[in-house]
Design goal:
By secondary structure, the protein is mainly beta. Among the domains are: 159 residues, no CATH class; 64 residues, Sandwich (Immunoglobulin-like), CATH 2.60.40.3110; 97 residues, Outer membrane usher protein FimD, plug domain (Immunoglobulin-like), CATH 2.60.40.2610; 83 residues, Sandwich (Immunoglobulin-like). The protein contains six helices and 53 strands. The protein is globular, with a radius of gyration of 37 Å.
Length: 847
Amino acid sequence: MRGWTRRAWALGASVFILGRVPVAWAEATELDGGNLDSEASASKSGAAQGGGQLPAPAFRAQKLNPTGRTVVLTVPAKDGSNYLGDIPLQIEADDRLTFPAMRAVQVLANTLAPDIVENLRASFAGKTQVGPEDFAPLGIQVAYDPRTLELQFQIPTERRASRSVSVSALDRTRLGEIAQPADFSAYINMRSSLDLIEDGVDTGFQSPNMLLDGAVRLGPIVAESDAIWQPGGFGADFQRLGSRLVFDDTKHLVRFSAGDLETQSRGFQSAPDIAGISLFRSYSVLNPQQIVRPRGDRAFRLDRASTVEVIVNGQQVRRLQLTPGNYNLRDFPFTQGANDIRLNILDDTGRSEVVRFNIFVDQTQLAKGLSEFGVYAGVKAPLGLSGPRYSNDWIASGYFRRGLTDALTLGANVQADARSRMAGIEAVLGTPFGTLGTNVSFSKVDGIGTGHAFNATFQRLIQRPSGLGDTFNLFVERRSRRFAPVNFFLPDNPYRYELGGGYTHSFTTSLYGGVDARFSKGRAGRPDVHSYRLSAGWRLSDRATLNAETRYQQDSLGKDVSAFMSLVVRLGRYSSVRSEFDTRDNRYRASYQTLNGSGIGSYNVTADVERSDNGAGISVNGNYVANRGELGFSHFGTYTRGFGDSQNQRSTFRLGTSLALAGGALSVGRPIYDSFAIVKPHKSLGKADVIVDASTFGNAANTGALRAATMPSLPSYSERTVPLDVRDAVPGTDIGQGSFRVFPSYRSGYLITVGSDYNITALGVMRNIDGEPVSLVSGTATELAHPERPAQTVFTNRAGRFGATGLAAGKWKIEMLDAARSTFILNIPADAKGIVQLGDIKAEESK
């Protein structure tokens, strides 16, 4: 619309100033039926042909300025069909074109390559006005089109700046309304189990075992804890496992914690129990939607307008419409290992071209400029019988990793306490041949001595033109005898070094084979350990797969050669049977598994029968998902060889449930894993049941008799849209948008109310003060008690009949836009529901 307004204004100015419409423009308009923007007009101009290169325009045969005096117009500057900005254009009496030099540089700055922009600035030095001839030395043509009243710049591809095109939709702007979490929310999960021993040493019901965990969120602060409660069991009835306060700085992507820390480690570090404070950054935790691996920038050039299909590993991930220019194609949705990237390019003349790239990435790599870290400091707090035991012994641990380039990620780590220290470095390098990774660490333990450790890995995925692929990996690791991270008091590493590797080859889409080996060199009299394996897999049909392997192992128990075979047959989409045989102990095992649905009413069942030289056994396990909890049952029995005498029979009954609070509402539901939402029906829904996240496979939750539903699985920092449905609602009931969108913070809670007071539809016939129908007009309905609320739009048909939706009980004023500006007052009864029939209503007398 803005472009048409600008063009119409310029056209009017041209007619007013020049005294007539340019002849060529008038001829084109007549031929195009007066459609200024028609395809025929664009085709005649040639503006879109040849990658933006215009032929000698027909309008040059006519004089641009027949007035005999200088004319100044403000016209749009265009690069093909791309609008660059407005520019003042001066048309001399002799048709010479001039325009401000600095304004020309401004509108072209983002289109031209930086060095070309600098050349323009240098050539324009001292000039205030320039013309097309000043651009000719750089190969840029400039022409004025009086038909479209535009100044067209025709820029060669090599003069254009490189532009970036994102393949995957990263950093998306979130459109629409996102629900806000409650300022205060809390939940507690209880997962309990009860064992019944039918045969064994101690028969009967055993003491129940309950795992408790929960969190409270107040504003941006989260307090979380977990514990085990086993009343009547051995030792303490209650054991607290850990408690902490958590604050996430989402702007800088840093998590601050205080209390019993959840220590993360890198390289050869240990993960000690620490009570203190920590700073932590992990993109997978705090920004899981961001791709932090190398984005794989690759440059390519288009000489003409083209359609580009991006194919990654044989799958099309995006289709782009691009104008001529230089491009950096970034943000590939890479998979682990080698990636085959193909660009299928089809230009506007029908010419096609294929461009291929290949890059190797590893999941542990970071893109250039990104950093991850963890810093933990405090006192040692090992877990005791009733909870963490807080000591006076200080301890610290930390690591830092950064992507120096898209190919190289470096890191360092350190740990220390009062009697030991350890420090190390790590590196990950991605090359066209594969990924190299290494860790080097040094330690010192008082009274023990120093030590060192080293490992290196190599990974490669080889993709062949047929689409099949091979995998190859190698590793080597060495630890000195006395090397130890913190909290190891008597380090004694049994092996001098270990090395190994593996190779897998796909012969066809149905057949693969592989080999892997591992060798550990013992020290101080310990024997060496050898392990070698050959494996193969054959997909017999769409339903059956056969796997087999042979193994050789040599260790302190001697030498052993064995074989293993398994057959998996799918019985349907969700069920399968598996049978396997292992020669090591003549073990035969048959199993069956099935699952049905998701959400409420879903279940899964597994059953196994096993027989070997050491005995026999049978096990059954089943789980059922209900609206308010998760139920489970399992039984395990062992027998003597050949299913003779029973040795042990144990059954376990399980229950998992939660109690959640958000926005003053309580709800009972299944266990909560991170963030959650409580969904409640508005009173206007009556006894109608609200269904949460309905799908063809099942529902996540429903409000039911308790009039509240818990949506238990909302992962933090991941956008989610949850659909809602209402079963058995009164006709005309307004349930809102039918979904809610969230972007949860860590362990946050939401209260979602479905429906509102504004769910009434009023029907009737409007008549003006003369009794005539108020026909075919619109108006607005405003609630007199709440004039600040948005007004509802009302329409009438030819007979004056109207339907006003989104009303609530109370008094409403309707103002119509007919000639008499008729005004009506509606009184919606307090007990009104759904649709209210008002019959004929008469306009109020004007005051």
